[in-house]
Design a protein that fits this description.
Shape: globular
Number of strands: 32
Distance between the termini: 119 Å
Number of helices: 48
Radius of gyration: 42 Å
Largest sheet: 19 strands, mixed
Strand content: 5-15%
Length: about 1450
């Protein structure tokens, strides 16, 4: 105020009004200054660098009401400038001109030979010109671009297929699966491809004439296959709007429909979309509405008539000639929807007139949620970053930040924000998402002022304005909105340049958050790249830390706080801790920690990359040790040295509720890890520990023995072993890239210092030193082995798992640590002792030599379902112009999942855990799972359950390699569950978003989301993991394409089922035995027909169940299912006979080449005989010389198995008609000298049969109980005759009828599989002998005479009154005399008596045969029998429900 000599009354009034307006702000500033002085307990005021006058002046500037008015006027002026510039430009809103787009036409009948119309030919010609290659499942590039021409191959007649080679390959693969007991879900058959036809000529068609050539349909002239037109249509047309079958709404689940396929601007397309919407039931969400539909009045009318639609999502409308009409159509459609609550406008660009019309219409609706992620004004220069999608997986946030708007871009953003005013001020919007919209400072002011201008209580609950270039004015306006929004619970304002603006905005936001009583989640992250260029000095950083501390002291509602990337301290790690800046930083962080500790509602605190050195971090963590509710803490990117590690250990040592601790790249060394692990041995709350990227192993590479014994890696591994051994709550442990490398040992380890000394109970050090030496002297070999095991880092961790009391670990990440082959093998020994371990990451820990040990360990454990190790690729890299031959066609795919032991173990574990389909997805990281699902369902032609295989493979493989590898029809589809399994097999461990865009999973997602379907690298070999995985996907036939059935389980009545099946097997043998006796009789010629009929009645029919061709026991391969009379020869015997010769026997003649045969190994695991005795195998020799008869072989096999061991399994299935059934299977196996003979007997029961069987069984149990009760009441003992009438006779009749009913509902067993498994070590006894000459396949051996059982002693005669007459003593020699008579026996306390129903008072001692009880052995038997009887009586009294059964059992005990 400038003093004047004569101030008038008006001036004085203005001064008084100004004083009244400013006085509350001054008082608040003084109060805050008082709070500021409380932080200065250790230093003077001038050392904290806080000027009271400057502090009050800053608060006055921030609270100046004129400041907000000026910011609002500036923003309105910017918006008006953009509108003035667009007044005369209406071209974007004018009705678009008609576009000549052909209507989709249905595919004609006989697609294989039908020609292509003009539109289809044009689309196919364009795809071929872009680099597409067509093979039509021949393995040859039939159509391929060569410069300015299209190269067309002329084919000759196909060569004959070598059926014997194909059969041998299939038999080898089947034998290998049977040997490894591979489950059928791994794949049942190898992918054998017939040889390609010969190329007899090449023709060239100019690219300009390809369209006419395709329309001419002259395939026969070039010898091309007749199905080429169908392949071309399915590959390049079927997933485009040109195909009528493609135009359908895709259900997404939960009442959602996607209309992304109706993008063609044609009346017929809009009509099809309207018909799809009308035909759908209970539709609540419309997704991906294109411009063609929004500009169609007919579709909008149908859309308005659809009741119950609450959510609408719009596909990107730019660049499109129909954008203006589409925006106006969207406005009218939304206004006509009475129940609209959610609108998604992601990645859009629109002009001001369109925005004005749209938001004016939305203000009249009941809209509660508006998602405009990545949407900005169309005049923004440069264009704003689109909404981050699956293609951006692995990219850093800094790469996705849009440029800050300036100049005309800022004016356009302000105009878009002003257009939103009617909706924002309507008072109905609850969730507003505006990330990456390039609002700028002016646009942010307009949005926040509009949202604050609600006449009633502000309903806003969620606000996201991340990455919008908000400045100081927008920050102050946002603070006022947070203060007025009393229901706001989530605020996200990350990646905004507020730190480059004056400190008033930061202080205002901190103050507003502190005053809020509803805010629970605050995400205010900042990229680490900005830390080095931040304009905040030491003084500003201290002020920001104090503001955060004040915010936490005043707020009482925050539960989740994320301030990642914001600098909270002014000191540096290399600064003197006694310097004033370091002391000031410690004070600020101490205040911040105290404020957080006093905030008892805080659950999650993320302070990653905030630049805290060791001392400051320790000062921050020390008060948090007493926090009663903190469950998640993230201190990644800070300096966690000895002081911070001690403070963190103190937090873990107390009874805190901390569940998740993340300390990635914090500089933790082995001493810090030891400090952290010590309290975790007894901590019962922490479940997740992430210390990825810390140098736990140090960089000490000394080769001295003393240095080796004290290597940091061994120290860290010993601490981790102790953690795993003692902790019982930790479920996730991440130790990736922690430098746990196996140190090089200078010499063999023979010292005992490698093992930690064991401490005794009293802590005596001398005893601890003597005990290892004593153990070494007692067992020196075992102690030496333990010492060598302790020398390995992997062995220490494995030993911790092995000694774990109750290991709860579910995820273990050791990738990037060079444990070595021996270390990984030793680690694998402890894996079976982690029964809950699901995910194991070991990439980069060893070579392929250790994979077998890991596979065996996870197979034994049975819990690991995700592993980032791959079996080595089996197919070599193909040259660019190599033609596939027979060897390649018979070989499996590169990295095929069916080829290695790791994938076999994983598949078995997933099958047992019911995770062999999309159930595996919850184990993926959430962001990776979302990216994979979005990329899969975003493929052209994809639905929620399946996607075209060609659309996926064409994005992953070069066109030439795809043409040579693909043997699937062009319209084949990949189920979503198979895609999940494929991703889990080949991309596990590569889906960490921090790995960057070059990680295999990020490359996969990026390739799947590209708009074009063809790879440009046509001649690139199959080298990367993505390409190898794609090749494996094309080679599979079962695992990724058929939903696996549930794993069979053991039924409760397994014993009775096995008994019934073995009895049925005896019946089969009895039916075939008469044929053997009649084989040499006069009716021998008729035996074949009778035998075929007899065997056919025993075999299971085809198609009894959907999966009847797959036995339930994995030991039996599906190829050995028996349905026909000759299957015993053509399947069972041929599998083992048509292989290599087994002629290396001791009695082999010297004149023949009876040497170990030379074998050629096949890629799929089998082998063929390269050189040997002759050109024939055992199968040809057996058929020519033995002349086997099927019925006789059936008899031999079943006779041998009738005395084998049985096991039962069952599974719920569906029959051929789709009705639910239950299939039971009993496998009977019996070993013999050459191997093992197995068979399976199957039986099915539908629901009605099962219910009838259960009712009959229950009735039989009740009838048996009633009969026993009637006999007891009648006083009839066992062995006595029952009366012909009366209650006992009625009960007997009822029991017999119930037994007959049960027999009528019993299972009908049929023979379903037969397998002869020959051991690899078996060698026949002679040169012409085979395994068929062993004991099961000869004549029936004479049964060995069974020893006659000794007759039981006759029971004593019954005397009325209940007494027993002692029988006469036999002539057997008496027992040895007892030194002294047994007093208990003489007293009669242990005498056995029978209590009859008539009298229970009489009891006469029972003297056994052989004389009086004069031996110690007899006394012991009598006493033991009585003790067991008393225990039985006690059990009977304790279990009242089974009292009757126990009473009957007690009678049997007394009789015995």
């Amino acid at each position: 105020h400038r003093s004047t000599a004569c101030p008038d009354a008006m001036t004085k009034a203005k001064e008084k009004a100004l004083v009244r307006q400013v006085l509350p702000a001054i008082q608040a500033a003084l109060l805050e200054l008082g709070e500021e002085s409380r932080l200065q307990e250790l230093e003077e005021l001038d050392q904290i660098e806080v000027d009271p006058l400057a502090f009050v002046a800053a608060l006055l500037r921030r609270k100046n009401p004129k400041r907000a008015e000026r910011a609002l006027k500036r923003a309105l002026a910017a918006a008006q400038r953009d509108k003035d510039q667009a007044m005369g430009v209406e071209a974007h809103t004018a009705p678009p001109s008609a576009v000549d787009v052909p209507a989709p036409q249905p595919a004609p009948e006989g697609v294989a030979s039908a020609g292509l119309n003009a539109a289809e030919a044009a689309a196919i010609a364009e795809a071929l010109a872009a680099g597409g290659v067509v093979s039509a499942r021949t393995g040859l590039p039939l159509l391929r671009r060569d410069g300015d021409f299209l190269q067309v191959l002329s084919l000759g007649p196909s060569p004959p297929v070598d059926e014997q080679a194909v059969l041998r390959a299939e038999l080898d693969a089947t034998r290998d699966r049977a040997h490894r007991a591979a489950p059928p879900v791994m794949g049942s058959r190898p992918s054998s491809v017939p040889p390609p036809p010969p190329v007899i000529g090449k023709h060239q068609v100019p690219l300009g004439q390809v369209r006419e050539w395709l329309e001419a349909d002259k395939w026969d002239e070039h010898g091309l296959p007749a199905l080429l037109a169908a392949e071309l249509r399915a590959a390049f047309v079927s997933n485009t709007p040109l195909a009528a079958s493609h135009l359908r709404a895709v259900p997404l689940g939960g009442g959602a429909l996607s209309f992304a396929r109706f993008s063609a601007p044609h009346v017929a397309v809009a009509q099809m979309a309207a018909d799809s919407l009308q035909a759908a039931d209970a539709v609540t969400t419309l997704r991906d509405l294109p411009a063609a539909l929004l500009s169609s009045p007919h579709f909008r009318d149908v859309m308005a008539a659809a009741r119950g639609v609450t959510s609408v999502g719009v596909a990107p409308l730019w660049p499109s000639a129909h954008a203006g009409a589409a925006w106006r159509g969207l406005a009218s459609a939304c206004e006509a929807l009475p129940d609209l609550e959610t609108l998604e406008l992601r990645g859009q660009r629109l002009y001001s007139p369109d925005a004005d019309a749209l938001f004016a219409a939305l203000a009249k609706t009941r809209l509660r949620c508006l998602d405009m992620t990545g949407t900005a004004h169309a005049a923004a220069v440069p264009p704003p970053a689109a909404a981050p999608g699956p293609a951006d997986f692995g990219a850093s946030s800094a790469d996705l930040l849009p440029a800050e708007p300036a100049g005309s871009t800022a004016d356009a953003s302000a105009a878009l924000a002003l257009a939103m005013n009617p909706l924002l001020s309507s008072g109905r919007l609850e969730r507003l998402r505006l990330p990456r919209c390039a609002l700028g400072d002016d646009g942010g002011v307009l949005v926040f002022v509009s949202a604050r201008g609600v006449p009633v209580r502000n309903p806003l609950q969620e606000l996201d304005v991340s990455a919008n270039g908000l400045g100081a004015s927008a920050g102050v306006a946002l603070a006022e909105l947070v203060t007025s929004a009393s229901r706001l619970h989530t605020l996200r304002l990350s990646d905004n340049p507020l730190f480059f603006s004056p400190a008033e905005a930061l202080g205002a936001l901190a103050e507003a958050v502190g005053r809020s009583d509803s805010l629970t989640t605050l995400e205010w992250r900042r990229e680490a790249a900005d830390l080095g260029v931040s304009s905040m000095g030491r003084k500003a950083r201290c002020a920001w830390g104090v503001a955060v501390a004040r915010m936490l002291r005043t707020n009482r509602s925050l539960t989740h706080l994320d301030l990642s990337g914001h600098p909270l301290a002014s000191s540096r790690p290399d600064e003197d801790p006694e310097s004033p800046p370091a002391l000031r930083a410690v004070q600020v962080t101490t205040a911040l920690g105290g404020a957080a500790a006093a905030h008892w509602r805080l659950r999650s605190l993320c302070l990653a990359r905030v630049g805290l050195p060791d001392g400051c971090l320790a000062a921050l963590l020390a008060p948090l040790a007493a926090h009663p509710a903190l469950t998640s803490l993230d201190v990644s990117g800070n300096s966690l040295g000895p002081l911070a590690a001690e403070a963190l250990a103190e937090m873990l040592n107390r009874k805190s509720r901390l569940v998740m601790l993340t300390a990635r790249e914090c500089g933790i060394d082995h001493d810090g890890l030891t400090e952290l692990v010590a309290p975790l041995r007894y901590n019962m709350t922490l479940t997740s520990l992430d210390v990825t990227g810390n140098a736990l192993g140090g960089d000490d590479t000394s080769s001295e023995l003393a240095a080796y014994q004290e290597a940091p890696a061994l120290t860290a591994a010993a601490a981790l072993a102790e953690l795993l051994e003692c902790n019982t709550t930790l479920t996730t442990l991440r130790l990736a890239r922690c430098g746990l490398h196996q140190p090089a040992s200078p010499k063999p380890l023979e010292t005992s210092e490698l093992l930690p000394a064991e401490e005794d109970a009293e802590g005596d050090g001398a005893a601890a030193e003597v005990e290892p030496a004593t153990e070494a002297e007692a067992n020196p070999e075992e102690t030496q082995a333990v010492r060598e095991e302790a020398a390995l880092v992997g062995a220490l961790i494995g030993r911790g798992l092995k000694r774990a009391f109750n290991c709860a670990l579910e995820s273990l990440d050791l990738s990037g640590n060079q444990l070595g082959d021996a270390g990984v093998v030793a680690l694998a020994e402890g894996l079976p002792h982690a029964p809950k371990l699901r995910s194991l990451l070991l990439a980069g820990c060893s070579s392929e030599a250790a994979h077998a040990a890991v596979a065996e360990a996870i197979a034994v454990g049975g819990s690991v379902v995700l592993l980032d190790l791959l079996d080595h690729p089996l197919m070599p890299v193909l040259p660019a112009d190599a033609l596939p031959g027979r060897a390649m066609a018979a070989a499996p795919s590169a990295g095929a999942a069916t080829a290695g032991s790791i994938q076999l173990a994983l598949c078995s574990n997933r099958w047992g855990a019911a995770m062999l389909w999309d159930e595996l997805m919850p184990l993926f990281p959430p962001d990776a799972a979302a990216a994979a699902a979005a990329a899969f369902r975003g493929l052209p032609g994809a639905t929620a359950d399946a996607a075209p295989l060609f659309e996926l493979a064409s994005r992953l493989l070069p066109p030439l390699a795809l043409a040579r590898l693909n043997t699937w029809p062009a319209d084949a589809s990949l189920p979503y569950g198979g895609f999940v399994q494929w991703v889990g097999d080949f991309f596990c461990g590569t889906w960490d978003a921090s790995a960057g865009k070059d990680a295999p999973f990020a490359l996969l997602v990026g390739a799947m989301t590209q708009s074009h379907a063809l790879r440009s690298m046509a001649n690139e070999p199959l080298s990367s993991r993505v390409e190898l995985a794609a090749a494996a996907l094309l080679r599979e036939r079962r695992r990724y394409f058929q939903r696996p059935p549930h794993k069979p389980t053991r039924p409760a009545a397994a014993a009775s089922l096995c008994e019934s099946a073995v009895g049925c097997l005896d019946t089969f043998v009895s039916a075939l035995t008469p044929l053997e006796a009649a084989a040499n009789g006069p009716v021998a010629l008729a035996i074949g027909d009778a035998a075929a009929a007899a065997v056919g009645s025993m075999l299971a029919p085809r198609g009894a169940a959907a999966d009847a061709h797959e036995p339930l026991h994995v030991e039996l391969p599906p190829e050995l299912c028996t349905h026909e009379y000759r299957d015993v020869l053509d399947k069972t015997f041929r599998l083992e006979l048509q292989g290599m010769l087994r002629v290396d026997g001791p009695s082999a003649p010297a004149g023949l080449a009876h040497m170990p045969p030379q074998l050629d190994l096949l890629p799929h695991g089998g082998a063929v005989l390269a050189s040997g005795r002759c050109q024939f195998d055992d199968w040809d020799f057996f058929c020519d010389e033995a002349e086997p008869q099927p019925w006789r072989e059936w008899l031999h096999c079943l006779r041998w198995l009738s005395k084998g061991d049985a096991s039962a399994l069952y599974r719920a299935e569906t029959d051929a008609a789709g009705a639910p059934t239950t299939r039971y299977e009993v496998m009977v196996q019996r070993p013999f000298s050459a191997g093992t003979l197995r068979c399976a007997l199957s039986a099915t029961q539908n629901t009605q049969e099962a219910e009838a069987a259960a009712a009959a069984t229950a009735e039989r149990a009740e009838a048996a109980a009633a009969l026993a009760e009637a006999r007891v009441e009648a006083g009839i003992a066992d062995g006595e005759d029952e009366p012909e009438d009366g209650p006992v006779a009625e009960a007997r009749a009822r029991a017999e009828a119930a037994a007959i009913a049960v027999s009528g509902t019993s299972l009908q067993w049929k023979l379903s599989a037969l397998h002869v498994h020959i051991s690899p070590l078996f060698v026949p006894s002679g040169p012409l002998a085979t395994w068929h000459d062993t004991e099961p396949f000869g004549p029936e051996p004479e049964p060995e005479p069974e020893p006659e059982p000794e007759p039981p002693p006759p029971p004593p005669p019954h005397i009325p009154g209940g007494a027993r007459t002692p029988p006469a003593a036999p002539s057997a020699p008496p027992h040895p005399p007892c030194p002294a008579p047994c007093p208990r026996l003489q007293s009669g306390r242990w005498a056995l008596s029978r209590r009859s129903s008539q009298s229970r008072a009489h009891s006469t001692p029972f003297v056994p045969q052989g004389g009086p009880p004069d031996s110690v052995g007899f006394c012991y038997r009598i006493c033991r029998r009585s003790v067991r009887r008393r225990a039985l009586y006690s059990w009977r009294r304790a279990w009242a429900p089974g009292r009757f059964a126990m009473r009957c059992l007690g009678r049997r005990w007394r009789r015995n």
